[in-house]
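step 3/5: co-fold with protoporphyrin IX containing FE
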Amino acid sequence: MDTEKIFTLSQVAQHKSKQDCWIIIHGRIIDVTKFLEEHPGGEEVLIESAGKDATKEFEDIGHSKAAKNYILKYQIGNLQGYKIQDDDDDDNLFTHSNKEPIKAKEIEAFVIKQNFKPKHLFFFEYFVPFLAAAFFLYYRYLNGALQL
Ligand code: HEM
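step 4/5: write tokens
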């Protein structure tokens, strides 16, 4: 098991043949080339998902703990952007790692939210200067009117 190496989706996509077959499960990159013939579900299903994220397909079957251990055995790295936390407790193995990477848009939204100003600031920033300017102009107007 190698959890240090980071691969991008396009790097994984290059390994999609029977001779070189990688798949992604919960952000883990698995080289299943040597496992193809051994897979109880047949090699076809793995080859179909080669070079892609097969998390949904993997979970839909309801694989056992043994299958999850195979994943750790054949893991060669992690998908870029995934935060994987290994745990000794096998049941948590995948719940912990099942975290979506934070998307840029979410970060942006967070930053914008943080920049929101309280409503009363708007009052002081715009309304008070506007009132002052109005008073000033009115004063000038009155002065002018009185001098006439
Ligand atoms: C595209 C993803 C996958 C699909 C669609 C898939 C499909 C299946 C199916 C249909 C079975 C049931 C076979 C039967 O009951 O006769 C099975 C069993 C099994 N698969 Fe997969 N599989 C996938 C990925 C994997 C991976 C990545 C591993 C491990 C590296 C794995 C390990 C196993 C094991 C150990 C079994 C035996 C039953 C169990 O322990 O859950 N599979 N798979």
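step 5/5: annotate
The chain is about 50% helix and 10% strand.
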